[in-house]
Specification:
The protein is of the alpha/beta class and 512 residues long. It has 17 helices and 22 strands.
C-alpha cells in the first residue's frame, strides 16, 4: 500500500435538476501527480470544489479523508489551513495590485501594531517567487506580466499558504506550448520535494507527460484509475475511458469543396495599439478566404492574431487602422461591431466568459443578443419568437441543458462554447471568425464543434480559425497563414504541412 494523502468516498452532489456527482471515489497517494480527466460536465471541477470547501460539508453526501483524518470543510480557508490549495482556470489576481499584494491578499503580513509590514511582504513574496522560478520584483504590477508568469504567481501564492496538496484546474489552457511545458516541469520538480498535485486538463499529451495516475470521470461517476507503468497510458486509451468508445479520428471527414469565389479579402491591414499608438500590432496584413474554406492562423502568443480578428470585426480593437476589407468582392467600411454583424461577419471570442456570454443570464437571453432585430416587433421583443429561436439553436448546437432557461454560468465549458456558437449562428454570418474555439473543452465537445465548422463551410460560408494547437489547424483547415510579431511570415496548404514546417516559418521570421 502506498501512503495515501487523500481519499474521497462515495461523493454525491446535486444541483437543481441535475446530479453532478454520483457516488464518486478518488484516492491520491502522497507525492504523486494525479490527473483528473473527463468530458465537460463530467464533474471534475465540482469534485475539487467539494474537496476545497467551496461546496461546504452538508451540501453533499460522502466522506473526505485527508492524512487519515475525516474532514468537513465549511469554507475555502478551512481546507487551506490543512495545506490544500486550489488554483482555478480563471486566475484570481487583481491586475492593478503588485505581485506581493496579490500573494498575501486577505492574509497580510502585519507588525505588532497591526500595520502592514511591507518589507516582510516583499521579502516573503520574493522567497516564494524564487521557489517557482519567477524572477521579478514583488512590487511589479500583475498587469505588467504575461499569463504564464501570472500562473506562477498563483503557485507562489499557494506556497505562501504552506501547500501540501496543490489542485490545478486547467492550468495551461491560456498558455503557449513553451510556458505550458515549463509549468509541467515545475510540477515534476515539486514532486521530487514531496508535493502532491491534482491536475485537471483536457490536453491529453500533458497527462501522458507528467501524471503518475489518471482518474477518469464520466457523467458524474468514477469510471477507472489508470496507473502509469501498469496500465496502458496512451491518449487513445484515455479517450476511450472518457467517452466510452474509441475515437479513431479526432477530426471529422470533410470534402474540402472550396469555391473559387472569395468570401473575404483583406488588403494592407495595419493596426496600432489602442493605448500606445506608436506601436504597430498588425503590420500590412493581406489575405483572403474563399467560400467553403477554413483558413487557419497560427503563431505564438503575442503574434497579433486576436488583435487582427477583433480589428476586422468592426474595429473592436486598435487605433489608427488602415487597409481595405472586401466581402464577396464588395468593398466595405466596418466602423463598429454592429456594422460588421449587419454585413454578416461574426467573431467568436477566445474569452467566452468575459466577452462572449452573459453568465448570469439564461441560454434563451444569450442566444438572440447579436440579432435582436430578428425577434423584435415594433421595437419590442417577441418572447415566443425568442423562445423558439433559442430552442432551435440549442438543438442544432447539441447543447446539453435541462432547459433554455438554464443560466449560462451553470453549464460546462463545452456547453457554454456551443451556446456561444449558437448565438453567432443565429446571426446568420457568411464569414465566421473563431478565436481559440476549442480552448478548455474536452475531445468529445471538440469533435462536435469541428462538425459544426464543417457544416458551415459545406453551406458555402467562409471560416477563419485562430488556434494555438497546430494539430487542430492541420486537421481542420484548408490553408494556414502563419504570423509572428504582427506580420504574416508564411502560408501553407494544411494537408501538405507539418508542425515542424509551421514552427520553421515562425523561427525564421524571429531570426530576421
Amino acid at each position: 500500500m502506498g501512503d495515501t494523502i487523500l481519499e474521497m468516498k462515495s461523493i454525491t452532489k446535486e444541483f437543481p435538476g441535475v446530479k453532478a456527482l454520483d457516488d464518486v471515489n478518488l484516492i491520491v497517494e502522497r507525492g504523486e501527480i494525479h490527473a483528473l480527466i473527463g468530458e465537460n460536465g463530467a464533474g471534475k471541477s465540482t469534485l475539487m470544489n467539494v474537496l476545497s470547501g467551496i461546496y461546504p460539508a452538508g451540501t453533499y453526501d460522502g466522506e473526505i479523508y485527508y492524512n487519515g483524518e475525516l474532514c468537513q470543510f465549511k469554507t475555502l480557508k478551512d481546507s487551506e489551513a490543512k495545506g490544500i490549495v486550489i488554483i482555478h482556470q480563471e486566475l484570481a489576481l487583481i491586475p492593478l495590485l503588485t505581485i506581493g499584494e496579490n500573494m498575501f491578499l486577505g492574509n497580510e503580513k502585519r507588525n505588532q501594531f497591526g500595520v502592514i509590514d511591507w518589507d516582510q511582504t516583499w521579502n516573503d513574496a520574493e522567497k516564494h517567487m524564487k521557489q517557482v522560478g519567477l524572477h521579478e520584483s514583488a512590487q511589479t504590477l500583475i498587469k505588467d506580466i504575461g499569463t504564464g508568469k501570472q500562473q506562477l504567481v498563483e503557485i507562489a501564492k499557494a506556497f505562501s499558504k504552506n501547500v501540501k496538496l496543490l489542485i490545478l484546474d486547467e492550468p495551461t489552457s491560456s498558455l503557449n506550448d513553451e510556458d505550458a511545458k515549463m509549468l509541467l516541469d515545475l510540477l515534476i520538480e515539486f514532486k521530487k520535494d514531496g508535493l502532491t498535485s491534482i491536475i485537471i486538463t483536457h490536453k491529453l499529451n500533458e497527462i501522458i507527460y507528467c501524471a503518475d495516475k489518471a482518474t477518469i470521470l464520466r457523467d458524474g461517476s468514477t469510471i477507472e484509475t489508470l496507473v502509469k507503468g501498469v496500465d496502458e497510458f496512451s491518449e487513445d486509451r484515455i479517450i476511450k475511458g472518457m467517452v466510452g468508445r474509441p475515437m479513431d479520428d479526432r477530426y471529422p471527414e470533410r470534402k474540402h469543396n472550396v469555391s473559387s469565389e472569395v468570401g473575404l479579402e483583406v488588403k494592407n491591414w495595419t493596426v496600432h495599439h489602442p493605448l500606445y499608438p506608436e506601436k504597430i500590432v498588425d503590420d500590412n496584413i493581406s489575405f483572403k478566404v474563399h467560400k467553403g474554406e477554413v483558413v487557419g492562423f497560427s503563431g505564438l502568443q503575442g503574434a497579433g492574431r486576436t488583435e487582427l480578428a477583433m480589428s476586422l470585426f468592426g474595429r473592436s480593437y486598435g487605433t489608427d487602422i488602415s487597409g481595405e476589407i472586401y466581402l464577396e468582392g464588395r468593398k466595405v467600411d466596418l466602423k463598429s461591431p454592429e456594422q460588421a454583424i449587419k454585413n454578416k461577419i461574426a467573431y467568436v471570442t477566445e474569452d467566452r466568459k468575459t466577452n462572449g456570454l452573459i453568465l448570469g443570464e439564461s441560454i434563451r437571453f444569450n442566444t438572440t443578443l447579436a440579432r435582436l432585430d430578428k425577434i423584435c416587433s415594433n421595437g419590442v421583443i417577441d418572447s415566443t419568437a425568442e423562445k423558439k429561436a433559442a430552442e432551435e439553436m440549442t438543438e442544432e448546437m447539441g447543447t446539453k441543458t435541462p432547459s433554455i432557461e438554464q443560466m449560462i454560468g451553470n453549464l460546462s465549458g463545452g456547453n457554454q462554447q456551443k451556446a456561444l456558437l449558437g448565438k453567432w449562428m443565429f446571426a446568420e454570418p457568411n464569414v465566421l471568425i473563431l478565436d481559440e474555439p476549442t480552448r478548455g473543452i474536452d475531445v468529445g465537445a471538440k469533435y462536435d464543434i469541428y462538425c459544426l465548422i464543417n457544416q458551415m463551410v459545406d453551406n458555402g460560408k467562409s471560416v477563419i480559425m485562430i488556434s494555438s494547437e497546430m494539430p487542430e489547424l492541420i486537421g481542420m483547415c484548408d490553408r494556414i497563414y502563419i504570423m509572428n510579431e504582427g506580420e504574416l511570415c508564411g502560408e501553407v496548404e494544411a494537408k501538405n504541412t507539418t508542425q515542424e514546417e509551421i514552427m520553421g516559418y515562425i523561427m525564421s521570421s524571429a531570426a530576421n
